[in-house]
Amino acid sequence: MATDETIFDHLKKEIPVDEESLLLNPDSSVGLVIVDVVNGFCTVGSGNMVAPTKPNEQISKMVEESAMLAREFCDRKWPVFAFLDSHHPDVPEIPYPPHCIIGTQEAELVPALQWLESESCATLMRKDCINGFVGSMEKDGSNTFVDWVKEKQIKAVSFLSSV
């Protein structure tokens, strides 16, 4: 990889992806899914695992874009689903060190998204594993994420992830 070539440029060559604008009309059946935009992954000095140790422009931009899109979706009364990495202290997520322990700031939404906690447009799902779909499984066999998609009649989903 050339020194002036960014990792993103390199990936675009290796994994061609068509970039295009997505225009949504008021009748769109869309939903926004935000994955792990929690302090433990995104807020400087707030995490035991991957939170930045100093300001990081890429993470800051991702958080800013996530908040902007979430606000736009809620203003339009479109549904937002946010997965929050959230673990019990006595249940390890191997091979990772303890992180995002329930009840700590690590497991909370970043400040720019905390307003979602009181919005009717938002569904927050604490998950205790890396896979949100698996983390949405309930003891009765239902799946909170699948139920959300069905209830909201989602036809297209936009994903935003911190990792």
Automatic annotation (TrEMBL):
The Isochorismatase-like domain, residue ranges: 32-157
Matching Pfam families: Isochorismatase
PANTHER family hit by this protein: NICOTINAMIDASE 1, PTHR47297
Family: Belongs to the isochorismatase family.
Protein's UniProt name: Isochorismatase-like domain-containing protein
Species assigned in the record: Brassica cretica
